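name: query_chain
kind: protein
chains: 1
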Amino acid sequence: MIKNKISLTQLESFLDKSAVILRGSMDSSEYKEFIFGMLFLKRMSDQFDKKREELMKKNSHLSKEELNEILEDKNSYGDTFFVPKRARWNIGFTDKESVFHSAIKDYKQNIGEELNKALAAIEESNDILEGILKSNINFNKTTGKNQKIKDSVWKDLIDHFNSGPILINENFEFPDLLGAAYEYLIKYFADSAGKKGGEFYTPNEVVRLLVQILKPKEGMEVYDPCVGSGGMLIQSAQYIEEQGGDPHRVALFGQEKAGTVWAICAMNMILHNNSDAAANIEHGDTIINPLHKHNGTYRKFHRVIANPPFSQNYNRSEVKFEQRFSYGFAPETGKKADLMFVQHMIASLKDKGVMATIMPHGVLFRGGREKLIREKLIEGIHDEGETVIEAIIGLPQGLFYGTGIPACIIVVNKNKPDELKEKILFINADAEFAEEKNQNKLRPEDIEKIDYVFTNKKEYDKYSRLVDLKEIRKNEYNLNIRRYVDNTPESEPENVKAHLNGGIPKLEVEGFKAEYIKFNFEYPVLLSGSSEFLKYRDDISEKDLIKEKIEDDASVKESFTKMSDVIEKWWKYAKDDFSKIELSKENGHKISDIRKELLHSMKKDLVKVGVLDNFQSAGVFVNWWNNIKYDLKTISSVGWSESLILDEMIVKEFFSFEQEEMDKTESKLAEQESLLSESLEEVDYEGEEDKKPTKSEITKYLKTEIKELKSLGKEKDMKELKGQLDAIEKYDKEVKTLKKELNTKQKELEHKVLLKRLGSEGSKHHFDNLKELASKELTEAEASSEDKFKGKKRTTVINALKKDITIIENKLADIDDFMNSIGGMIESEECKLLILRKHFDLINNELNRYLNNEKRTLIAIFENFWDKYKVSSKELEKIKTITKKEIDSYLNKLGYYND
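structure:
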C-alpha cells in the first residue's frame, strides 16, 4: 500500500486554513486572487524543482558551469513551466549587482512587492502566461497610503504554504487532485462572496445540466464566451471522461471580460493539467470583439455553453464582426444586451453545432427590438435559412448567487431533425428543486428528468410540451414558458358538505392513491367507513398518531425491506466491479464503464419495487457517485489507500473496547456535571440581574457567607452553606478529573487510529515532518528579537514548541512498541473491505433518505386531511356556544353583567 499521499480532504483543509489567514484583512471577493496566486506560485515552483533535480541527476557528469547552463535554459524543461530565479520558492539568488535575494519561503519585508515581482518573472518566462498574472493579481494593494495586507500576514501565509505538502502529481492520491481542490476553493469563495460570487461562478448543478444537455464528445471544440473561472469548460472535459472518452482530446476555448477572473480561469486550466486550454482563454469583451479567430474571422465551434451576465449595456460603434448579429441589434441602453450574447453564440456554432445558454426570462417576451430579434430566431431568418431554437427550459428561482429571479435555458441546434423543424420543446421545471438555506439547488433527479425529457422530446402534463410554430405565431412570438406549459398546481379541493357535517371525502382520499400505493399502503389503516365520507378510526385520537400508524404499518415496513434487499443484492455484484477499479489503466477496466453498468442496473432494480421512479433512482445513484468519485480516482491511481477509511470505521473495527471505555467516562462525566449543576442551583444566590451566576461567583459567595456566619456564631446556618460548598467542590473536582481522563483517552485513541492507518514507517515519517516543522519554527522564534512571535508572546511560543517537540520525540521512540500493542497496521485486504463497507453504507443511507422523503409525503397527505376536515363547522359552533356560555357564566359571577 502506498503511504503518505496527499488526499483531497487534506488539501481542502489546508486551503481552508489559507483563507482563514487572510479573512480578517478584507472581503473574500478581494483576497481570492491572492490565495489562487500563492497556490499557483507554489505549484509551479514545486514542479520546477522536481524537474530541476531530474536534470541535475541526468547531467551530473558535466562541469558546474555546463550543468548550470542547462539548468537555467528554459528549453531544458520541456512541458514543465520554467520558473526564473526570482520566482523560486525554495532557492534564493544573487543578482548581477551581487545583491542576495531571498527565496519566497524566506521573505520577511516588502513581501507584497516581492510577490508581485515573482509573479511578473514567471509570466515573462512563459509565453502561455503573457498578460495573465502581473496585470491582474496585485499582492501589494493599498488603501490610501497603507498596504491592505501587512507583511506579518503575508509571512503567516507563506509559512503556512511552506508547512504544507509539495505540490507535485507524484504526491497526490490521483493526478487531478490539485484541480479538484482548486474547484473546491472557487466554490468556497463564491459562497463567501454572496452576490459577487455570481460574477465568476455558476453553481455546479446548473453547469452539469447544461453539459448533460450538450453532451460534448471526444474531438470536439467547446467554447464559453463568458467563461468566468472556467467551470463549464472543466465540466465538459470531465463529462467526456465520465462517458469513457479521453478528456484531453477536447479543445476548450473561452473569453472573459474581467481581468482577475480571466487570470483565475487560466490558472484553473493549468492546475487541471490542461495548459493548452489555458492558452485558449482570452481576455476581452466578447460582444465587442471575439478574440478567437480563424481565417481572418471569428472562430466557430461544435459546442457553445455559457451563463452570460444578465442585463448589460453595450456600444454598437465599438462592435467588430457585425455579421454575428444577423437577427438584429438589441437596444444599446436599458440593459438589454442578452440577445446579443445569444446571437454571438449562434454565430459561433459550426454547421451542426449545438449551444445552451442561461438567460433571464425577459428575453422570452419583451417587446420592441427584442421582439423583432426573437421573431427572426423563431422563423429561422438568417444566413442558413432554418429555424434554430430547439428548446426553452424554465429553471427554479433562487439558483444563482446574488439573485432570486428565475432564469431559463435556451438551446439552439443548427442541425434540428426534420420532424422538429417547425416545433420548439418547452420544459417548465421551475417547481422541482431542493430548497436550501442560502439558495435553491437542482437535485440529481431534477437534472436527470430535464435531460431525459429534452433528449427524447417527451411530453408530460404540466411539465413539457412540443409546441408548433403556428401556435407561437398566434401568440405574436411570445415565448413565455407558462403560456405553453402551465404548471400552476390545482387548487386545494374543499368539500363544503364535509366542512359542515364532518367526515373526509372518499374521492379526495382516493385521489392520492398514486402516492400511497407506492408503499402498498391501505388507507383503512387510518380511516373507516365505506360511504361518501370517511372518518379517522377511534384509535387515532391525535394528529401525531397518523405518523406513528404509517411508520408502524406492515406494508410500509415491507417496502423499506424490499428496497434494502434490492440494494444489498445489487451491491454483491457492484462491489466486484469496484474491485476491478484498482490500477484500472493496467487491467483495462474504465471507471466510466463501471459507472454506466451500475447506474443502469440500480435504476432497473429499484424502479421495479415501485416506491421510487426512474429519476429518483438515478438521483440515489448520482448523489452516491458524487460522494465517492474521488475515492474511485484514488483507488484507480494508487490502490485501496488507507486515507479513504473514516476514523470512526477504524475505531469501530479495531478499537471498540477503547471507545466503550470513553463512552463510560463520558457517561460518568455527564452524571457528575448534572450533580454539579443541581448543587449550584440549590444555592440561594441570584447574582447580577439577567445573568446566570457562574460557578466561580457562587463559590465565592458561599465562602464569604460562611466566613460571615462563623463570625456571628451562626453554626447551624454556616454548616448548611458549608455542606453546599463541599458538594460543589466535590462534584467540580470529579468533573475536572473525568474531563482530564476523557481528554487523555481521546488523544490515545487518536494516536492509535493514526498508527493503525499509517503503519510504523508511515507514522515515523509523519512525526519526523511534525518535528522538523516545529524545530524550524522554534529556531525562528528564538532568533527573533521581537516580544511577540506570530501574534503571541515569544517566550510562550518557545516553551510551547519545546514541549511539542518533546512529545513528538517520545511518540517517535515508542512507535514500534505501540504498533505491536495494536496488532500492527491495517492490511491491504482489510483496507479494501473497510472502504467497500464505507461505500455500501453511503449508498444505503442515500436510498433511505429518498425513501423517508416519500414516506414523509405520504404522512403529510393524511395530516392535511386531519387539518381540513377533522373538526366540522357544526362541531365548531357547538364548541363556540359552550365556550360562550362558560364565559358568560364566569363574567356574571364576577358581576360584569347586570340583571
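note: Residues 715-783 form the longest helix (69 residues).
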